[in-house]
Write a structure and sequence with these properties.
The structure holds three protein chains of three kinds. By secondary structure, chain A is mostly helical. Helices cover about 70% and strands about 0% of the residues of chain A. By secondary structure, chain C is α/β, with parallel strands linked by helices. Helices cover about 40% and strands about 20% of the residues of chain C. Chain C contains twelve helices and nine strands. In chain C, helix 4 packs parallel to helix 6. The chains are: A mainly alpha, B mainly alpha, C alpha/beta. Chains in contact: A-B, A-C. At the A-B interface, helix 3, helix 4, helix 6, helix 7 and helix 8 of A face helix 2, helix 4, helix 7 and helix 8 of B.
Chain lengths: ~260, ~200, ~290
């Protein structure tokens, strides 16, 4: 198998061997907890107390922290910038700088969003870092996801490097022919066409053959599938997944009860 | 019943074979444009094309899967899969209405896509992301909030202002690419008649 | 009845009045290799598509006459049944790799998996296909990281895992280097010995002419020559071969021209490989001096 596909990193960690369905269930449960918890600090606690330790256990902590912060920092910057400074002035403002005023209500809102998105980004980064997309798709296919959808995702991940390579070749050829990148917006936009035109043309030539390959391998056939490689699913993981379901249900009920106007 | 039959007819092996390639075009186009330093993304050209030549439902599936694939690299994109699905779906209908036959009609198709997507995108961006994205375009949302708008309205109008900049060129580009397709190959797609005029 | 049989097959693509293939009849037994020659556009690919069920099911073409492949009519039987009897490998290696799995082994397994076969049966088929195509050492590699020749062997292995009684190779060697072509011919020989019927098409006969039992030459959709390689490539067929824009293999051409100059013994069988040619020219030399 490949060393790295999308975010996936091959490591001998504690998470890689688990059934993808178990990891997905755990990720969704943590996510549900972040969204259902009534405390603003809860998502940050989930991140520091559960998700980061799991990343260390999975031996992907370095890649995990790098990927999460690359996604999260620009977002968090704009989130606090806009909700921190761009709200209209009211009497409740904490302090004012020139036309900008900082509102406690808006800051609380931004902190809530910041916590939930931190958990959302980080559980999915961790899931994809430790789960091979092929295994994830096979397990999802086992559980009723369309085999054709799984095919599209797996095939895209593998064809993408080839298409990128073609795009690079086309761009190099055009640079060699003296095609300059620059100038006005319209001019630069027009420069996209000489790249996409040949690229798309090549793609269209491939479609017919690739469709025949799908037909020849019975990809279009309806009915039961079996798989050459079995994904282990030990008993405790099945029990763990039921536990996840129960936990989500309990949190939802608790949230509902708390919100009920008694 | 008739609807079910027509949906099934759009999902031929050619449609499924096109999807991974259309998604690759989305990604490569998106990256090429980011290198050109333009205020557009063009990362739905492949989805619009797939919708135009394979029908709205195939366009919707292409869009949704495109976002999921991108989400495997960058999970912040995952929740926006309904937006991408809508773009493919409405592009498919624009093609059925004949809007991918001339370039100025493609401009109209781009505008239709641009004004309808904020309805799908706004609830997601507001509920999950507080109306903010990790890019400079969010400053526009900030200005609208400052002018007294609620977050939801601000995010909606920001999308409405930004989207045409991206979707009109995308639709025109999709039109040009579809038009350049060799006829023999174009005919394999279930909705080829949407992009090829009868006597061309 | 023969394993593969066509009687007066005439095929038309939709919205095309001139037939792509007209009045073609042929028979092919298990273990037999048929080489189809002709210029591009002569109907070779149409024949391949007809035999594998793609002509009517995928290209929506219409076909008159009789057709039978491994007991099924490929035009009317469900495509899913036809592909388990007739498999096709075509020109460009990377487009035949679906990419549905991330390893060579997985890619080969994909077809049998989609048939819903028991796991042990899938494993058996994958091992057998990898053995025939000598891909065992590459089993865990990524399919798209292979060389062109290896990719073509993978495409072949993926089709062999469907266990077809008829294997169709449409210009399958045309993008391969000489080593890749030799590998492919070696697999073809083994398959024929194991009882698979093979149909291979080519613009130039090359080394496949020495391997095949029967040769068919197509010219603008019409069969113009059909018989053993020596019959079809014989000196008196030059005019027909030229009209069909088909060349003899180099050694056969040398013998035909040598014969006119008295360098090739009269009545000696036409050589189909270099060894036969060398032998013949030596005999001709002794005869001449």
């Amino acid at each position: 198998m490949n060393e790295s596909i999308a975010l996936y990193r091959e490591r001998p960690g504690a998470l890689h061997g688990r059934n993808p369905a178990t990891k997905l269930a755990a990720a969704l449960t943590i996510l549900a907890a972040a969204f259902l918890a009534p405390w603003i600090a809860a998502p940050f606690a989930l991140f520091a107390g559960i998700i980061v330790p799991l990343a260390f256990a999975g031996r992907v902590a370095g890649a995990f922290l790098k990927a999460v912060f690359l996604l999260y920092l620009p977002f968090a910057f704009f989130l606090f910038l806009i909700h921190g400074l761009f709200h209209p002035s009211t009497d409740a403002a904490l302090w004012r700088v020139w036309i900008f005023s900082v509102q406690p209500e808006a800051l609380r809102f931004a902190a809530g969003v910041a916590g939930r998105t931190l958990v959302m980004f980080s559980v999915f980064v961790l899931l994809f870092l430790t789960t091979h997309p092929g295994r994830l798709m096979q397990e999802l296919q086992n559980r009723g996801v369309s085999g054709l959808a799984a095919y599209v995702i797996c095939a895209t991940l593998q064809i993408l490097p080839l298409i990128r390579e073609r795009a690079r070749t086309i761009q190099e050829a055009q640079t060699a022919r003296g095609f300059a990148v620059g100038g006005s917006v319209l001019h630069r936009l027009r420069a996209v066409l000489p790249l996409l035109g040949p690229l798309f043309h090549g793609v269209i030539l491939d479609v017919e053959d690739r469709a025949l390959a799908l037909e020849a391998r019975a990809v279009m056939r309806k009915g039961k599938r079996t798989f050459l490689t079995e994904i282990p699913d030990p008993r405790w993981e099945k029990i763990f997944r039921r536990g996840c379901l129960a936990a989500v249900a309990a949190m939802a009920v608790a949230r509902g009860v708390a919100a009920w106007p008694w | 019943m008739r609807l079910g039959g027509s949906i099934k007819k759009d999902f031929t092996s050619v449609t499924w074979a096109l999807m991974p390639l259309a998604i690759c075009i989305n990604i490569v186009a998106g990256q090429a444009v980011s290198m050109l330093k333009l205020p557009v993304y063009l990362d739905s050209v492949g989805t619009i094309l797939a919708g135009a030549v394979c029908g709205p439902w195939a366009g919707a599936v292409t869009g949704a899967l495109s976002n999921i694939v991108w989400g495997l690299f960058s999970p912040d994109a995952l929740p926006f899969f309904p937006v991408a699905a809508w773009i493919g779906f409405i592009a498919g209908y624009c093609a059925i209405w004949g809007l991918f036959k001339t370039w100025w009609k493609a401009v109209i198709a781009g505008l239709i896509i641009a004004v309808t997507t904020p309805f799908v995108a706004t609830p997601i961006v507001v509920y999950l992301y507080g109306g903010v994205e990790g890019s400079g375009a969010s400053l526009l949302t900030g200005v609208l909030i400052k002018s007294g708008m609620k977050i939801t309205s601000a995010a909606f109008f920001k999308n409405l202002m930004i989207e045409p900049l991206d979707k009109v060129p995308s639709a025109v580009l999709a039109f040009i690419l579809a038009r350049r397709m060799p006829r023999r190959f174009a005919a394999r797609f279930p909705r080829a008649e949407n992009v090829i005029s009868g006597n061309a | 009845m023969a394993l593969v049989s066509l009687r007066g097959a005439t095929c038309r693509y939709p919205q095309n009045k001139t037939p792509a293939l007209s009045d073609l009849s042929l028979d092919l037994e298990a273990g037999e290799i048929l080489l189809v020659l002709g210029a591009s556009g002569s109907g070779k690919s149409t024949l391949c598509r007809l035999l594998c069920g793609f002509f009517t099911h995928f290209y929506k073409g219409a076909c008159e006459g009789e057709a039978s492949v491994c007991g099924l009519d490929p035009r009317t039987a469900p495509l899913c049944d036809v592909i388990q009897r007739a498999g096709m490998v075509f020109q460009r290696p990377e487009t035949q790799i679906t990419g549905a799995r991330f390893s060579v082994r997985g890619e080969i397994a994909c077809g049998p998996e989609n048939l819903g076969l028991p796991r042990e049966e899938i494993a058996r088929r994958v091992d057998e296909a990898m053995g025939l195509t000598r891909l065992e050492s590459l089993a865990d590699r990524s399919p798209f990281s292979l060389s062109g020749g290896e990719k073509q062997r993978l495409a072949l292995a993926s089709i062999l895992a469907m266990r077809p009684g008829l294997l169709v190779l449409d210009e399958a060697a045309s993008q391969l280097d000489p080593a890749g072509e030799n590998d492919l011919l070696e697999v073809m020989r083994t398959l024929a010995e194991n009882g698979t019927a093979l149909v291979a098409t080519a613009c130039l006969p090359g080394k496949a002419a020495a391997l095949c039992h029967t040769l068919l030459v197509l010219d603008q959709g019409r069969p113009v020559l059909y018989g053993t390689p020596r019959e079809v490539l014989a000196a008196d067929k030059t005019r027909i071969l030229d009209a069909a824009q088909t060349a003899r293999p180099l050694c056969a051409q040398a013998a035909v021209e040598g014969s006119a100059m008295g360098l090739w013994p009269k009545n000696a069988p036409l050589p189909l490989n270099v060894e036969e040619a060398a032998e013949g020219f030596q005999a001709g030399e002794k005869h001449a001096f």
